[in-house]
Amino acid sequence: MKTLVITGGTDGIGRELARTHLTRGDTVVVIGRDPAKAATLPDAPGRAHFIPADLALLAENRRVLDHLAAQFPVVDALVLCARHYRWRRTETAEGLEENLALFYLSRHLFSHGLAGQLRRAPRP
């Protein structure tokens, strides 16, 4: 079985990927803002994990990455689906433009932050 980390796993494509992989028997770590939405994912004790976080905040990205490093030493797949587009310029509590923080900085932090934990696919 595989271990997947899915940002934005409580809505849309991320949610369906989480549901599909939980149904297949994989371990899925869903990162999202709404615990109520996460609670509607399939019940999979020991395999379904939810980490509440606002990934537009750099401190939240770091907190989640630290948690993942401690709890999931090997990750088979990282799926970056978090999105919450703001039509008007909005700053985070950290003073960053929110769309930039969520769509670029969080993806950068996650892809580099999990690089050591991501299982490498065998070469053909």
Label the overall shape.
Answer: globular
Round the Cα radius of gyration to an integer and report it.
14 Å
Spatial strand order of the main sheet: 3-2-1-4
Level-2 CATH architecture: 3-Layer(aba) Sandwich
Relative helix content: 25-40%
Keywords: Oxidoreductase
Protein name: SDR family NAD(P)-dependent oxidoreductase
InterPro entries: NAD(P)-bd_dom_sf, SDR_fam, Sec_Metab_Biosynth_Oxidored
Organism: Streptomyces litchfieldiae
Structure overview:
With 124 residues, this protein is of the alpha/beta class. It has one domain: Rossmann fold (3-Layer(aba) Sandwich). It is built from four helices and four strands; from the N terminus they run βαβαβαβα. A four-stranded parallel sheet has the order 3-2-1-4, with helices on both faces. β2, α2 and β3 form a beta-alpha-beta unit. α3 runs parallel beside α4.
Secondary-structure map:
Layout: E1 3-7, H1 12-24, E2 27-32, H2 35-38, E3 48-52, H3 58-71, E4 77-80, H4 98-113
Parallel strand pairs: 1-2, 1-4, 2-3
Helix pairs in contact: 3-4
Could you give a short description of this structure?
The protein is α/β, with parallel strands linked by helices and 124 residues long.
